[in-house]
Amino acid sequence: MKTFDCDHCGQPLFFENVQCLRCGSALAFLPDRLALAAVEPVPGAEGLWRQRSATGGAASGRSYRLCRNNTDHQACNFAVPAEDPNPLCVSCRQTRILPDLSIPQNRDRWYRIEVAKRRLFYTLAKLGLVAVEPPDGQRDGPVFEFLADQPGQQVLTGHCEGVITLNVAEADDAERVARRIALHEPYRTLLGHLRHESGHYYWDRLILEGGRTADFRAMFGDERVDYGQALDAYYAAGGAVAGWQEHHVSAYATSHPWEDWAETWAHYLHMVDLLETASSYNTRLGLPGKALREVDEVSDPFDAGSADFDRLVEQWLPLTLLLNSLNRSLGQDDAYPFALSARALEKLRFVHDLIQSRPAGDRVAGHCQAQAAAAR
Fold first, then answer.
1. Which DSSP letter does residue 217 get?
2. Rounded Cα distance, 94 and 106, in Å
3. 56: which DSSP letter?
């Protein structure tokens, strides 16, 4: 995620900010511009806002409303164009079912999940995979349902027919860490969950509807293998077999070709997001050691002409080494606990090339994956 600057005073801002700490300007994320902006009320127009400039005038003549989840719950910082009939922003309108908000802890869980979902929306929008202004107040991209376990009824985290379901317990740090340790996972985050499940959604759109199943099977395997039986066998065996690192980005990716794809897809989103972050800080990198090899300033993977996969990979290795070294300096575990084999890189290239060459107007058809929440 790139960093932003306050339009009014130049203060560095983060994606989730709602007020500039230097000049006090109200802030809103404008999805049509994919930018966090200082905003001010439109004179004589109650409830409408416009972008603020350093000179005190309006940098944009367009008017916006704040997302209803901002005005009602202080749970969103996205704006909605004034002419859009939907009271919810393009990210919040993707959420179809919320947990019971009368339960206090569910409000915090919901907020954390929506923060992660807005980050997912941003990356998908930068990749051109979701519309920033769907017509007539519609929604684009996957639909989300955030649910809590009920007595005798466990919520399954997964994807089915364009709907992503997430157990809200994943928003509790202690619960999520306990599950990560129990399943011997090196990495487990809310954003990681959402990126993974979005991979299942885009398998339908880009592979199934895009007529790329033969190419997919050549790279990832035959998805017609029974999904439930494959997962049962994976967990019965205690996880992946030895040597899985030679062919997959994660152990869980070995369970079924659909999971291999979703894990690889999520990893690709990790890659472009982290590279964009590094680029926004003007990061320059070199591999330490006797043969120091300087790498050019990290490129923004979303800039035209900078999306060459080999270039992304060339910058990825030293960037992840730097990231892990910084974490270790603070006594933390590696933020990026992965090592990419040649075969895993081939799969990542497949995702990259598919996104770059995707056909327009594709729509989701459907397959389903649902795992016990304790498992995934």
1. H
2. 18
3. S
User: Residue 229 burial by CB count (10 A; 0-12/13-18/19+): exposed, middle or buried?
Assistant: exposed
The SS3 assignment for 330 reads coil
Please state the domain extents for the chain. Answer: 1-84, 90-210+359-376, 245-357
Q: Exposed (0-12), middle (13-18) or buried (19+): which is 271, by Cβ within 10 Å? A: buried
**Nearest C-alpha neighbor of 267 from the set 249, 255, 244:** 249
pTM higher than 0.90, yes or no?
yes
Tens-digit pLDDT profile for residues 182-214: 877 888 899 999 999 999 999 999 999 999 999
Distance of CA 24 to the CA centre of its chain: 29
Indicate the pLDDT class of residue 9, thresholds 50, 70 and 90: very high
Is residue 312 within 8 Å of residue 303, measured between CB atoms? no
